């Protein structure tokens, strides 16, 4: 007795071409869904990704084995469990992350209910919606290309769903989907150019800076070192001429002056009278360096500009303002990419030249913190060489101590201070002496303040990486830097970079300190380091072009486009009017094309309708939808055997047009003869513009016999008769 075949043995792959139509289309749709869900695996809970994968595999197994769907109560139970897991994972059922999680769950569960075409359409539209959700997390070029493929595949599945009969080829459906996409491309391009933008365009307002690294409004010991581990791009710079030397590329960000013993923060509102506050008093010298800055979304409302940039244009509706400490601040953080042009002056002076009461804000130190460092500064001041020294002399002495005191520059110095971060400066300055730029800058400022010299910390970026392919300088988060400024009478604020004293290559050559490469990265670099560097430059140049022309197309660039085409003072209403005008023009053109396309007819239909109308002028009235066989019968009934050639031609015509290939008459040569015969019949009938009925019958009687091709033009057509004007004269032909 034969044993029953186990279910797993029934899942043999018969080959894609030999799959049943329903199984093939289902597997295609499941593959598309997996492609759409895959990028979400980077930020969704692991259980959600695993559940979606299991559901898709179960559905594929059911399709290959031609097995029934699971009961509805089981899918309902899974859905309830997934909703509970979503709440436990995100703490809510609303919001971006929870919403995307639920959409992925619903998409995967809906595949277990693909019982009708209506269910397939629900899956299609969930897929299109899920494609859009990816851009809430990333707008990279790679993701955009991946989602473009996903949209094409979804459209292919939609086309297949509209072909319910037969076994249509996937290639035919894919070509039709591609053609539909190309037809919609002009509309998409017009909407991209003119649809008013409300930032952030590519996400939710709260998502513009969430999950992003970058400079902050405060600094703890080690915070900049953590930022330096990120190799992402913070901004791109293009110089509109020669570029400054690497050691001059200081991009000024938040300025920190208030120290509580553990953390540095911006200066609070000064209590001094306006005349006693520290002014900007910026004076620039020498030539300016014109540059173009493309900023990524930031967590802080500060624009890192090349020192020193005295003027900055508006960011669409955001008006930047320069503070007294030369920070360029905005009313709110940037929520989308912005591009701005400015001019920087590398030689400049700023700050008061004479003492003001506001400088006291830059002397404050928290009591009870770092006593050993304060004692070290007091001992330096008691040295006769520095008892009456000015700020420049004291700064040189402190930098010399850093240079010769056994300090080292490292990305992983470890934690300093006690459990609460107290006395971190003492441990760094006098004990371990290993740190990153913020350690040196913070210690320098504390020592200078202990020496009764006003000082503050400036955070930002130093250096950049030039891409030789497009000429842009990439400022990465790994270029994050912290330096110091102290006040010198007669000069104002003076930059002092303690990092240059211990790691001059970091400043002179703009080398970003990077962590040690991993095993795979080391192996790849050992094979061909230059190849990977060139590949990286090419990819970043391509990604930069994507950012400049697509992601950076903001409201300001929309208005610039309107100005170039003639609008004097454009605003969003002009954008809307122009978009409406284009929609009306496109609709009119589409209506005209539809009318023209409707007028186009198959040559067969056009000639057949012509002969039908000609026969109608001679008494054989028929409706437009009369088929050839019916017209042949009506002609025989109306004219008798005289219309037999026409009837035969019409019947042969119908056979050649509608019959399957196996039922068609004769070979291609015979078909050509038949086509020539009925074409000649149409031509003869169409040339008889109003002759007597007997002349029409005479023309039909002279049609060529079956199987003999008609050569040339209407040579077989009878000549029209000439009418003799004499009374009683017989008619004769020319």
Largest sheet: 5 strands, antiparallel
Give the low-pLDDT segments.
5-11, 204-213, 662-669, 705-716, 718-734
- The helix content, as a percent range, equals 40-55%
Content-based structural category: alpha+beta
Alpha carbon gyration radius: 41 Å
- The tally of beta strands, per DSSP, is 22
Explain what the structure shows.
- The chain is α+β, with helices and mostly antiparallel strands.
- The chain has 22 helices and 22 strands.
- The strands form 7 sheets. A 5-stranded antiparallel β-sheet has the order 12-7-2-18-17, with no helix packed on it. Strands 9-3-16-19-20 form a 5-stranded antiparallel β-sheet.
- A hairpin with a 3-residue loop joins strand 4 (258-259) and strand 5 (263-265).
- Helix 3 packs antiparallel against helix 4, helix 4 (96-110) packs antiparallel against helix 5 and helix 5 runs antiparallel to helix 6 (141-161).
- The longest helix has 33 residues, at 519-551.
- The chain is elongated.
- Mean pLDDT is 79; it is low at 5-11, 204-213, 662-669, 705-716 and 718-734.
Which features characterize this protein?
alpha+beta, 734 residues, disordered C terminus, 12% strand
Summarize the structure.
The chain has 734 residues and is α+β, with helices and mostly antiparallel strands. The protein has 22 helices and 22 strands.
């Amino acid at each position: 007795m034969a044993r029953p075949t186990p279910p797993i043995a029934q899942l043999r792959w018969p080959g894609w071409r030999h799959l049943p139509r329903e199984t093939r289309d289902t597997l295609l749709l499941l593959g598309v869904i997996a492609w759409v869900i895959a990028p979400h695996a980077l930020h969704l809970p692991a259980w959600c990704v695993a559940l979606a994968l299991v559901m898709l595999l179960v559905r594929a197994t059911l399709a290959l084995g031609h097995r029934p769907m699971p009961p509805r109560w089981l899918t309902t139970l899974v859905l309830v469990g997934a909703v509970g897991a979503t709440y436990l994972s995100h703490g809510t059922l609303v919001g971006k992350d929870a919403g995307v999680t639920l959409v992925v769950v619903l998409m995967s569960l809906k595949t277990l209910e693909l019982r009708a075409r209506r269910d397939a359409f629900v899956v299609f539209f969930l897929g299109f919606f899920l494609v859009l959700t990816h851009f809430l997390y990333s707008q990279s070029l790679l993701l955009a290309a991946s989602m473009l493929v996903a949209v094409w595949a979804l459209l292919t599945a939609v086309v297949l769903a509209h072909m319910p009969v037969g076994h249509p080829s996937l290639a035919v459906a894919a070509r039709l989907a591609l053609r539909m996409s190309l037809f919609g491309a002009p509309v998409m391009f017009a909407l991209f150019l003119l649809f008013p933008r409300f930032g952030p365009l590519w996400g939710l307002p709260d998502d513009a800076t969430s999950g992003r690294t970058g400079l902050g409004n405060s600094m703890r010991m080690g915070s900049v070192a953590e930022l330096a581990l990120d190799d992402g791009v913070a901004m791109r710079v293009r110089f509109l001429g020669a570029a400054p030397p690497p050691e001059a590329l200081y991009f000024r960000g938040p300025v920190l002056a208030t120290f509580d013993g553990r953390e540095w923060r911006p200066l609070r509102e000064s209590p001094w009278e306006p005349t006693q506050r520290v002014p900007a008093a910026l004076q620039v010298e020498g030539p300016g360096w014109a540059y173009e800055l493309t900023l990524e979304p930031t967590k802080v409302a500060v624009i890192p500009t090349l020192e020193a940039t005295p003027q900055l244009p508006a960011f669409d509706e955001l008006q930047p303002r320069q503070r007294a400490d030369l920070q360029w601040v905005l009313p709110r953080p940037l929520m989308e990419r912005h591009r701005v042009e400015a001019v920087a002056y590398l030689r400049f002076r700023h700050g008061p030249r004479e003492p003001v009461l506001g400088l006291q804000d830059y002397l404050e130190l928290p009591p009870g913190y770092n006593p050993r460092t304060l004692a070290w500064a007091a001992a330096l001041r008691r040295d006769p060489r520095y008892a009456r020294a000015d700020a420049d002399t004291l700064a040189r002495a402190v930098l010399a101590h850093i240079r010769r005191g056994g300090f080292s520059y490292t990305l992983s110095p470890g934690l300093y201070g006690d459990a609460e971060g107290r006395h971190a400066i003492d441990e760094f300055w006098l004990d371990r002496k290993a740190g990153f730029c913020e350690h040196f800058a913070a210690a320098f400022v504390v020592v200078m303040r202990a020496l009764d010299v006003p000082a503050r910390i400036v955070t930002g970026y130093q250096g950049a990486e030039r891409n030789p392919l497009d000429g842009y300088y990439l400022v990465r988060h790994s270029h994050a830097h912290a330096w110091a400024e102290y006040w010198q009478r007669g000069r104002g604020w003076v930059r002092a970079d303690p990092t240059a004293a211990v790691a001059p290559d970091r400043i002179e050559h703009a080398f970003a300190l990077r962590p040690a490469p991993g095993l795979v990265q080391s192996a790849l670099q050992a094979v061909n380091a230059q190849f990977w560097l060139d590949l990286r430059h090419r990819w970043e140049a391509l990604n930069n072009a994507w950012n400049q022309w697509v992601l950076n197309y903001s409201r300001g660039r929309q208005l610039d486009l309107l100005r170039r085409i003639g609008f004097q003072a454009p605003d969003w209403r002009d954008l809307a009017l122009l978009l409406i005008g284009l929609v009306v023009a496109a609709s009119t053109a589409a209506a005209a094309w539809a009318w023209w396309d409707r007028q186009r007819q198959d040559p067969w239909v056009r000639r057949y309708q012509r002969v039908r109308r000609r026969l109608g002028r001679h008494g054989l009235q028929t409706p437009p939808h009369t088929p050839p066989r019916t017209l042949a019968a009506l002609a025989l009934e109306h004219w008798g055997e005289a219309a037999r050639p026409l009837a035969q031609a019409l019947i042969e015509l119908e056979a050649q047009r509608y019959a399957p290939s196996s039922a068609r008459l004769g070979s291609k040569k015979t078909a050509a003869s038949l086509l020539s015969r009925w074409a000649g019949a149409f031509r003869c009938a169409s040339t008889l513009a109003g002759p007597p009925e007997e002349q029409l019958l005479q023309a039909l009687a002279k049609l060529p016999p079956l199987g003999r091709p008609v050569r040339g033009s209407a040579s077989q057509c009878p000549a029209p008769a000439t009418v003799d004007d004499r009374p009683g004269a017989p008619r004769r032909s020319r």
